[in-house]
Specification:
heterodimer; A: mainly alpha; MetI-like fold; 2 domains; disordered C terminus; B: mainly alpha
């Protein structure tokens, strides 16, 4: 009896979890001119509508550019740090790890608000560069986490053997360490990309005609109009995320990701 | 080969040089903005230093109310997440068996959807002529008038729980997984009922998971902005206040003060989180 009630509860739980998502996916295929569920018929008109509405397309391009650059910058900064921190098991190294992960604990709106004033003060202001910098602050911890997790599982003996055999630091990194930690880098990069692509609380502080990211444009659109194009965009975004998740699962393992997330 | 390398790299930095790029970047673009924000909160309009805004926060019922409401809302959401998340985590670890992979996928999938998407979903479901109201009024005839659900505190809380409960389930499940099942079997062999076994063995052993999940959920709830901004509910929390002061009132000093308060709350949570993790020896 208890077991049956528990199963029933879990089923209800997932109905609650999936309801708003399924509804939006279905509405994105509606033939109607308004957002309502259930839908009167199926069509792809709202996906075409996205391409015909320039602000969406521009914002999508901006979002992809920012996400790619912030991810590359996060990797360049976080990978060397991760390599050092996994091998240094001293008290202050733990402190540095905590510091490098701390952007995850600070509310994004605080990061966005304070960065706007600071970056304006040092002359970067509302710009594409500012978006990349602030997104990197938010993305760097994800790369650090996954790379650290994978590198910790690599026995130090491999790197020591390469060094004994005469490889320099760079050669050891390129020939031995890099191939071994590649899954961690890939998973971290995917997380970082998705985090940046979905970010709203930082991006809206840096919004302008040239720097509006997709979530910012979607937010301002949803405040004025309530049509299914937002659903179509959300479905595309979900599709992108699912592809990334499946890719990360193939190269990294989904269980490790839940620990890392 | 080795010799060639050695001669090429005459400058041989110590290992901690690898930390410098990341550390310097975060000091420049993460720490300095936050410090600058803190300074703005104690700088008066004429440039002198003042604690007037903090005095105002502690003496003005409106400002104090914003802080209390933020913490109260996050606490309520955290408690609901524990109550809902625990049974799901228990089911996932102890009962699900071959279904567990699917459950983990279903837990992670919502994490990948944007907040805007979920909010849009809630708005469609609970609109005046939305699915739920149509069901209740027309199809089932349970109600005369459609319910007003949008912009109520209940829906805002439900939407926050929807965003945060997966973190709770995963935190609790991680700890439940590590509990030696022989302890539970032992209790049952010695005559304890299932319920008593759960209350006296499983629950106490999983408190660390509840703690980790609770701090995580509380921390994210404090900073959550988009859900409340779009679904309303009449809540006035720190992130909404910061946004209003920035966007409408344009009182940047007060916005900085409130964002510093939010930062201090977040840092307190981080401290608790670290202590809990250390104690677990992870």
């Amino acid at each position: 009896m208890g077991g049956f009630l528990l199963s029933l509860f879990v089923v209800a739980f997932f109905a609650f979890m999936l309801a708003p998502i399924v509804v939006v996916v279905v509405i994105s295929f509606t033939s109607a001119g308004y957002a309502a569920f259930p839908i009167p018929g199926w069509s792809l008109r709202w996906f075409y509508r996205i391409w015909e509405y320039p602000p969406f397309v521009d914002a999508m391009i901006t979002s992809v550019q920012v996400a790619v650059l912030a991810t590359v910058l996060s990797c360049v900064l976080a990978i060397p740090a991760a390599l050092y921190l996994t091998r240094a098991r001293s008290g202050w190294a733990d402190g540095v790890t905590t510091f490098l992960l701390s952007p995850l604990s600070v509310p994004m709106i605080v990061i966005g608000f304070s960065s706007l004033f600071f970056l304006t003060w040092i002359g970067i202001g509302i710009s594409f560069t500012a978006l990349v910098i602030t997104h990197t602050v938010a993305c760097l911890p994800y790369v650090l986490r996954t790379v650290t997790a994978v590198h910790r599982a690599v026995p130090p003996a491999y790197e020591e053997a390469a060094a004994i055999l005469g490889a320099g630091r760079w050669a050891t990194f390129r020939e031995v360490t890099l191939p071994l930690i590649r899954p961690g880098i890939a998973a971290g990069a995917l997380f970082s990309f998705l985090t940046s692509f979905d970010n709203l609380p930082i991006s809206f502080f840096f919004g302008s005609a040239q720097t509006n990211t997709l979530p910012v444009v979607m937010l301002s659109y949803i405040e004025n109009q309530f049509d299914p194009s937002i659903a179509a965009l959300s479905t595309l975004q979900l599709l992108l995320a699912v592809i990334c998740l499946l890719a990360a699962d193939r190269i990294y393992g989904i269980e490790k990701m839940t620990v890392a997330a | 080969m080795a010799r060639a390398n050695a001669s090429r790299f005459r400058f041989n930095p110590p290992g901690w040089f690898l930390l410098l790029p990341a550390v310097l970047f975060l000091i420049a673009f993460f720490v300095l903005p936050l410090v600058d924000d803190g300074l703005r909160s104690i700088r008066a309009d004429d440039g002198s230093l003042t604690l007037a805004r903090y005095v105002a926060i502690l003496s003005d019922r409106f400002y104090l109310g914003v802080i209390v409401e933020t913490v109260a809302l996050s606490s309520a959401v955290t408690v609901i997440c524990v109550l809902i998340g625990y049974p799901v985590a228990y089911h996932l670890v102890r009962r699900a068996g071959c279904w567990s992979a699917l459950i983990v996928f279903l837990l992670i999938a919502p994490l990948l959807t944007s907040i805007i998407m979920r909010t849009f979903g809630w708005q469609v479901l609970f609109a005046r002529r939305g699915l739920i109201n149509t069901l209740l009024v027309q199809d089932l005839g349970l109600l005369e008038q459609p319910l007003r659900i949008l912009n109520t505190p209940g829906l805002a809380i439900a939407a926050l729980v929807h965003v945060l409960v997966p973190f709770m389930v995963l935190s609790i499940a991680a700890v439940l997984q590590g509990i030696d099942q022989r302890l539970e079997e032992g209790a049952q062999v010695l005559g304890a009922s299932r319920w008593r076994t759960f209350v006296e063995i499983t629950l106490p052993l999983s408190l660390d998971g509840i703690g980790t999940g609770a701090i995580l959920v509380f921390m994210i709830a404090n900073g959550s902005f988009v859900t409340l901004a779009l679904l309303g509910g009449g809540f006035q929390t720190l992130p909404l206040f910061i946004f209003q002061q920035f966007n409408t009132t344009r009182d940047f000093g007060m916005a900085s003060t409130m964002s510093t308060v939010l930062l201090v709350i977040a840092m307190a949570c981080l401290y608790l989180q670290l202590r809990l993790v250390r104690r677990q020896g992870i």
